[in-house]
């Protein structure tokens, strides 16, 4: 049922995913869904956890065997690809906070976080700055991918070239920052 909800979110958008619409898609009455989920909030959480888990797998798999710029490029491309392929389910993750350490959303978020942390190991970012670097990478990748997904790049420049430019920009910034931190 969560997979069907996630697919539906990709079609109609996370904000438009409702229990009624999902029930219609599944060919059941809405009250039947309550045997499986606690309501709209629970359904949205489950879609968000699925999306973070899938994105974490995509990024984690993409960076295997790579380091430095190659790992950064692989992670960024995998993340962008995931968001473009699954815009609704990814949108469900934005602003969704885990309710506690046992929340499946927390484990799924950690999976994605660990994949990007692996990228940063290749840059020798000082430990106190890893959180800042992770936030910077998430902002760059999330911002670009969600803007592109929403049709936010309407001018003439090739979007793929712009994305490669963003990767090069992030790589230079991370390398420069790591050198600066060791001085």
* Beta-strand content estimate: under 5%
Please outline the major beta sheet. none
Give me the secondary-structure category: mainly alpha
Shape: globular
Radius of gyration: 18 Å
How many strands in all? 0
Spell out the helices and strands N to C. Answer: HHHHHHHHH
Determine the mean pLDDT: 94
Contiguous helical run count: 9
Q: Residue ranges: pLDDT <50 for 5 or more in a row?
A: none
The N- and C-terminal alpha carbons lie at a distance of 53 Å
Helix content: over 70%
Describe it for me?
It is a single chain. The chain has 183 residues and is an all-alpha fold. 72% of the residues lie in helices and 0% in strands. It has 9 helices and no strands. Helix 1 packs across helix 4, helix 5 (68-85) packs antiparallel against helix 7 and helix 7 (104-121) crosses helix 8 (130-149). The radius of gyration is 18 Å and the shape is globular. The mean pLDDT is 94.
